[in-house]
Specification:
Helices cover 33% and strands 22% of the residues. The chain is of the alpha+beta class and 674 residues long. It folds into 4 domains: 16-124, Gnk2 domain, C-X8-C-X2-C motif (Killer Toxin P4, Chain A); 138-297, Killer Toxin P4, Chain A, CATH 3.30.430; 312-416, Phosphorylase Kinase, domain 1, CATH 3.30.200.20; 423-665, Transferase(Phosphotransferase) domain 1 (Transferase(Phosphotransferase), domain 1). The strands form 8 sheets. It has a 7-stranded antiparallel β-sheet with strand order 1-12-7-10-11-9-8. Strands 2-5-6-4-3 form a 5-stranded antiparallel β-sheet. β24 and β25 form a beta hairpin. α12 packs antiparallel against α14 (523-539), α12 runs antiparallel to α17 and α14 packs antiparallel against α16. The longest helix has 30 residues, at 279-308. The protein is elongated and about 100 Å long. It comes from Vigna unguiculata (Cowpea). InterPro entries: GNK2, GNK2_sf, Kinase-like_dom_sf, Prot_kinase_dom, Protein_kinase_ATP_BS, Ser-Thr/Tyr_kinase_cat_dom, Ser/Thr_kinase_AS. ATP binds at residue 370.
Length: 674
C-alpha cells in the first residue's frame, strides 16, 4: 500500500513519468523538436545506411562507434556505446536490435536515443561528437532502502569519486570504470561510463553532474542509475558487472566497467521508475556545470602551462608526451568518417610520407589531415618530430595543429584547413598572380618574417624549418601567410649557432650553400630560404629559371645581374603597380642580403623585421649571392635537387632528384583545396 501511495503521488505530481517493468528495462526518446523525415527521403536512406554500417563494423572491438553519413547534404550522426564487459559480437547484436526497435518506436523523428541492457544507441541530424550532453536525463532507482543511509552515502560517494577519475582518464576507445567498496555492514558496487569521444575534462564534468544527482533520485536506496546521453552511472549492493573485454595494448586503457540495468534484484520486489529531470533541476544542474567548467578550465590552463615547459629528448619520453595530450587526440574512426574513408576525391596532395586529405568534423569544421604511409621507413619518426614540435608552436603565421591520431599503425596529423591554397599557386600563375597586389605581397613577406622570428627566437624552443618554400606557405581567407609542414624541422639548443648533419634534406633553389654541400644548418639557413622567397614574391618568378632570350637564367643570377647594372626595376613583376616601387626595391635589397654566400653576412630575422618596418634604416650593400649562375663550381648540374646522405657502410652517396621536390621524401605536401 505504501509503495502504491508513493507511485500515485509521483504520478499526480509528474504526469509525464512512465513506469516500466524489470523485464523490459529499456528506454527510448523520440525528439519531435528536431524535425521529421519521410520514409523515402534522403535522410531516411542516409540513416539506414549509417545504422547498418554501425552494427556491421567488425574492425572495432572496443564497443564504441561514432559515425556520420552524408549524401546530398542530409547528414546523419550516430553513436553506439556498449557495456565494457560485452564481447564484440554481442555488442553488434545489441546495436542491431536497438536499431530495429528505435526505428519502430521513432519512425520519422530525426533525433532519437535508446538505452537498453547491453548498449546505448543515439542518432541525430545535429552535431553530437566531442560534445557533452546531459539532456534528456533519467533516473532509475530501487525502492528498497539501505539500513545505514549516512554510512552508505559516504562510502558510495567515495567510490563514485574514485571511479569518475579512472573513467575520465580513459582513451578514445573507452572511458569506463567499475569497482566495489566493502564496509563492515554492506558492500557497494559501482560503475561509471562516458562516451569516449569526450575529453578528460568533459567526461569528468558529466560524471560529476550525474553523481551529484544521486541524493535527488536515489538517496538511501540500495540501487540506482542516472542516465545521460554522454555519460551514465550505476550503483547496487550486489555485483552487476562481468569481466571487461580486453583492449589492444596501444594505447593503454583504464579499467573497464559496465553500464546495465539488471533483471536480477536479489529476490526483492522492485519497481523501476523512469523520471524526466524536471526543468528546475535541469537549470540548477546547468548552472553547477558552468561553475565547474570555469574552475576546471582555469586549472587545466595551469596544468597545460606546466606540461609545456617539459622538453623530453628520448623517444620513449616523446611517446609519453604524446599520450598525455588527451585534448588533442582524435579517434581514427572520427577522422575516417570526416574524410569519407580517405576518399581520393578528398585528397589535397601527396608527399613521400603520405597524403593530405580535406575533411569535415561533425561540428562542421573543415580540417586538413595528413595520413602517414604505413610502409614508410621513417613515418613514425617523422610523425613524432612534427607532433612534438608543432604542438608547442602557437603563432598566427604558423599553421595550427588541431590534433593527432596515434592508434595501432595509423599516424594522423589534423591541421586547420587554410582555404586559399599555397603561395606558389598565386605568384607563379600568370592568370592568378594579379590577385596579389603589392599590398598583399608585402603583408605576406612580413607575415613569413614574423613566423620565422617566432621559430628562431620567440618560441619555447629554437626551431629551424629546413624546407621553407613557396608551396609551404599557405594563405588564409584574408591572405595572411601561414608557414606549414614541420616534418623536416630541427630543434637546436638556444646557444647553438650551427649544427651538422649527414642527411641533407630540402628543396634545391631554397637551400643554403653550407647546408647543401656540407650539411651545416642554422637559423641562417632559413634566412637564405626566406631571401629566395622574397625574390620570388617581388618578381613573380620561380627560382629555378627565367627565360632570357633563348637561354634560361636562375632567379638569383637574374636578380644580381640587374641589381649590379642598376636595373633592379627589371626584377619587379610587371603586373604590379609602380606606386610602391621604392618599397619593392627595398624588399629586393633585403632579399639579396639574405642569400649571401657567407652566412655571417646574412641578417637575422630580428634585423629583417626591423628593415621591413623602418624604411629610414640604411641597408648594407649586398655582395654576389651564393650559387651565382656564372660560378659553375658552386652550382648544381641541370637545376636538379640534391640529397647527400650517409648510407649503411658509412660511405657517402650523392642522389639527384627532380627540381622543386622535397628531399628525403619527407612529409612535405602541397595543400591544394578542391
Amino acid at each position: 500500500m505504501a509503495v502504491f501511495s508513493c507511485m500515485l503521488i509521483i504520478f499526480l505530481c509528474f504526469p509525464f513519468l512512465k513506469f516500466i517493468s524489470v523485464a523490459t528495462a529499456q528506454k527510448h526518446v523520440c525528439d519531435n523538436g528536431k524535425g521529421n523525415y519521410t520514409a523515402n527521403s534522403t535522410y531516411s536512406t542516409n540513416l539506414n545506411n549509417l545504422l547498418s554500417t554501425l552494427y556491421s563494423n567488425t574492425q572495432i572491438n572496443y564497443g564504441f562507434y561514432n559515425f556520420s553519413y552524408a549524401h546530398n547534404t542530409d547528414t546523419v550522426n550516430a553513436i553506439g556505446l556498449c557495456r565494457g564487459d560485452v564481447e564484440s559480437d554481442k555488442c553488434r547484436s545489441c546495436l542491431k536490435n536497438s536499431t530495429l526497435d528505435i526505428k519502430q518506436r521513432c519512425p520519422n523523428q530525426k533525433k532519437a536515443i535508446m538505452w537498453s541492457d547491453l548498449c546505448m544507441l543515439r542518432y541525430s541530424n545535429e552535431t553530437m561528437f566531442h560534445k557533452m550532453e546531459t539532456f534528456p536525463g533519467y533516473y532509475w532507482w530501487n525502492l528498497e532502502n539501505v539500513t545505514e543511509p549516512d554510512q552508505f552515502s559516504q562510502v558510495l560517494g567515495n567510490l563514485m569519486k574514485t571511479l569518475r577519475g579512472i573513467a575520465a582518464s580513459g582513451d578514445s576507445r573507452r572511458k569506463y570504470a567499475a569497482a566495489e567498496n566493502s564496509t563492515n555492514f554492506q558492500n557497494v558496487y559501482g560503475a561509471v561510463q562516458c562516451t569516449p569521444d569526450l575529453s578528460h575534462q568533459q567526461c569528468n564534468q558529466c560524471l560529476e553532474g550525474a553523481i551529484s544527482e544521486i541524493p535527488t533520485c536515489c538517496n538511501g536506496k540500495v540501487g540506482g542509475r542516472v542516465l545521460r546521453p554522454s555519460c551514465n552511472i550505476r550503483f547496487e549492493t550486489y555485483s552487476f558487472y562481468g569481466t571487461p573485454t580486453t583492449l589492444d595494448p596501444v594505447p593503454e586503457s583504464p579499467p573497464p566497467s559496465t553500464n546495465t540495468i539488471s533483471s536480477q534484484e536479489s529476490g526483492n520486489t522492485t519497481i523501476i521508475v523512469i523520471a524526466v529531470v524536471v526543468p528546475t533541476v535541469v537549470v540548477v544542474v546547468v548552472l553547477l556545470i558552468c561553475l565547474f567548467l570555469c574552475l576546471r578550465r582555469r586549472k587545466a590552463r595551469k596544468n597545460l602551462a606546466g606540461k609545456s615547459c617539459e622538453v623530453k629528448e628520448q623517444d620513449d619520453e616523446d611517446e609519453d608526451e604524446i599520450k598525455i595530450a588527451d585534448s588533442l587526440h582524435f579517434s581514427f574512426d572520427t577522422i575516417r568518417v570526416a574524410t569519407e574513408d580517405f576518399s581520393d576525391s578528398k585528397k589535397l596532395g601527396q608527399g613521400g610520407f603520405g597524403a593530405v586529405y580535406r575533411g569535415r568534423l561533425p561540428n562542421g569544421q573543415i580540417i586538413a589531415v595528413k595520413r602517414l604511409s604505413r610502409d614508410s621507413g621513417q613515418g613514425d619518426t617523422e610523425f613524432k618530430n612534427e607532433v612534438l614540435l608543432v604542438v608547442k608552436l602557437q603563432h598566427r603565421n604558423l599553421v595550427r595543429l588541431l590534433g593527432f591520431c596515434l592508434e595501432g599503425r595509423e599516424r594522423l596529423l589534423i591541421y586547420e584547413f587554410v582555404p586559399n591554397k599555397s603561395l606558389d599557386y598565386f605568384i607563379f600563375d600568370p592568370a592568378v598572380k594579379a590577385q596579389l597586389d603589392w599590398e598583399k605581397r608585402y603583408k605576406i613577406i612580413r607575415g613569413i618574417a614574423r613566423g620565422l622570428l617566432y621559430l628562431h627566437e620567440d618560441s619555447q624552443l629554437r626551431i629551424i624549418h629546413r624546407d621553407l618554400k613557396a608551396s609551404n606557405i599557405l594563405l588564409d581567407e584574408e591572405m595572411n601567410p601561414k608557414i606549414a609542414d614541420f616534418g623536416m624541422a630541427r630543434l637546436v639548443l638556444m646557444d647553438q649557432t650551427q649544427v651538422n648533419t649527414n642527411r641533407i634534406v630540402g628543396t634545391y633553389g631554397y637551400m643554403a650553400p653550407e647546408y647543401a654541400m656540407h650539411g651545416q644548418f642554422s637559423v641562417k639557413s632559413d634566412v637564405y630560404s626566406f631571401g629566395v622567397l622574397i625574390l620570388e614574391i617581388v618578381s613573380g618568378q620561380k627560382n629555378s629559371g627565367i627565360s632570357n632570350g633563348e637561354s634560361m637564367e636562375d632567379l638569383l643570377s637574374f636578380a644580381w645581374r640587374n641589381w649590379k647594372e642598376g636595373k633592379a626595376v627589371n626584377i619587379v613583376d610587371p603586373s604590379l603597380n609602380s606606386s610602391s616601387r621604392n618599397e619593392m626595391l627595398r624588399c629586393l635589397h633585403i632579399g639579396l642580403l639574405c642569400v649571401q654566400e657567407n652566412l655571417v653576412d646574412r641578417p637575422t630575422m630580428a634585423s629583417i623585421i626591423l628593415m621591413l618596418n623602418s624604411h629610414s634604416l640604411s641597408l648594407p650593400i649586398p655582395a654576389e649571392p651564393a650559387f651565382y649562375f656564372n660560378n659553375r663550381t658552386r652550382s648544381f648540374p641541370e637545376m636538379q635537387s640534391w640529397e647527400y646522405n650517409s648510407r649503411g657502410t658509412g660511405s657517402r652517396e650523392a642522389i639527384l632528384k627532380s627540381a622543386q621536390e622535397s628531399e628525403n621524401e619527407a612529409s612535405i605536401t602541397e595543400l591544394y583545396p578542391r
